[in-house]
Design goal:
This protein is α/β, with parallel strands linked by helices. The chain has 3 helices and 5 strands, in the order αβββαβαβ. Strands 3-2-1-4-5 form a 5-stranded mixed beta sheet, covered by helices on one side.
Length: 161
């Protein structure tokens, strides 16, 4: 047996001619699956008439959270989320913008009456409560729930400037 320089096996003439004349054998193409379309259930929005408004007003930020009577959060917003940066986050104007945003988010729930719980000593406290009333929510009660220590932690040392 004589070997040729190429190591490819040679086909008999009958097979070679039939292979050259016919088109290449078609590979079974996998069927293209259409993109899966999930039938999403439409979220049922329950109607909540009364709820709680939690206002956390610190020296650095103001956060407003609206929840139902069980404490399940319906919507929240903060000054940082609304695009305020630095010292502008704790201003009364920022508190008004925050409340306008959060009230707009709870429109589908039908919230109309809130009991307000205020925590902290920031300047956005009163402005947030006024904005809640100005944006169409009836304020039923206002409670100050700022945590007050009973002489708990030792205060930091006085600064030497």
């Amino acid at each position: 047996m004589i070997t040729t320089p190429s190591s490819e096996p040679t086909l008999p003439t009958e097979l070679a001619s039939s292979a050259a004349d016919s088109p290449p054998a078609e590979q079974p193409t996998p069927e293209k699956k259409s993109p899966m379309v999930r039938s999403r259930r439409r979220k049922v929005i329950r109607q909540v008439r009364t709820g709680h408004a939690h206002v956390q007003a610190t020296y650095n930020n103001t956060i407003v959270t609206l929840s139902d009577l069980q404490g399940n959060v319906l919507a929240w917003s903060s000054a940082g989320r609304m695009g305020f940066r630095g010292p502008k986050k704790s201003t009364p104007y920022a508190a008004g913008v925050i409340v306008r945003d959060v009230v707009e988010k709870v429109k589908p729930y039908g919230l109309s009456e809130v009991s307000v719980f205020v925590r902290g000593v920031g300047s956005g406290r009163e402005a947030a409560i006024r904005a809640l009333h100005a944006n169409g929510l009836q304020v039923l009660s206002i409670r100050d729930v700022t945590p007050i220590p009973h002489n708990g932690c030792r205060p930091p040392r006085p600064r030497r400037v």
